[in-house]
Amino acid sequence: MTFKEWTKRTFPKERITPFAIKLLSFLLPILHRTWRITEEGRERTEELIASGGVIMVTWHGRALVPFTVMRNRGCHALVSQSGDGALLAGVLENLGWGLIRGSTGRGAVAALKRAKTILSQPGAFLAFTPDGPRGPAGVAQPGMIFLARKTGKPLIPVGIAATPRKLFKSWDRFMVPLPFARVHFIYGEPLTIPDDEDLPVATLRVQTAISALEARAERTLGSTPLPPSLRPVNADLLQGEEYLHEQAALELVENAAR
Asked: What DSSP designation does 228 have?
């Protein structure tokens, strides 16, 4: 038996996940209190939330910051139904977030219908990572575009940077600001999605806005934005197999929502 097999047998996920949820739920608010956070454009975004709700979008690798900054504000997040999603869902619940479980691969129809219901309520606020849960990093998928178009709610692109920080070697280069880090959080201008705008064009427009705001946040802190290869802005990527899978899922959602 290899060490990896022994570890999996001795420490199965069903035992580790509850412990990890408790530990992270305890540590993240403490870490957050040490950060020196500046939020640019927050007042405008809060006015939009109060007047009818918004959909906030940022890249998967920067999600830790909004998860802690926006805890206990009545926000909802879309979380996949995977094993990793179970860990994230448990932590977010403890941080005061509402949950919508699903992704493009599993539970897409139910998740987007639930999101549409939530956005019909006054003051609703949804958060999406449009390149999650499996990437490619920095390449938006059109699910949140469809939702924004169907509900008429504005999309708020968000750019996030921190220094000093730890960037993990994961597909999304997940960022964890270190204790006492400077964190810059930019809420971009609201984006509306007209009914007649082509879905790939609208998706690329939102993708470009998120990446531009992230680069601006990095420059504000004097740090270097991630290389373009990790934050691609490539319309061809929206026409591949992943995009066609998204289109099929969205067609199911649209038929179910009628």
From this structure: G
Per-residue confidence at 257, pLDDT binned at 50, 70, 90? very low
**Rounded Cα distance, 247 and 238, in Å:** 10
CATH number at residue 106: 3.40.1130
Give the bridge partners for 55, in sequence order: 126, 155
Number of domains comprising the chain: 1
Q: What is the residue whose two structure tokens read 């690798």?
A: 61
| pLDDT recorded at residue 14 | 60
More confident of the two residues 141 and 82: 141
Range(s) of the domain holding residue 116:
3-257
> Among 135, 136, 130, which Cα is nearest to 148's?
130
pTM: 0.82
Using left for φ > 0, alpha for ψ between -120 and 50, and beta otherwise, residue 215 falls in alpha
Q: What is the mean pLDDT of residues 203-219?
A: 93
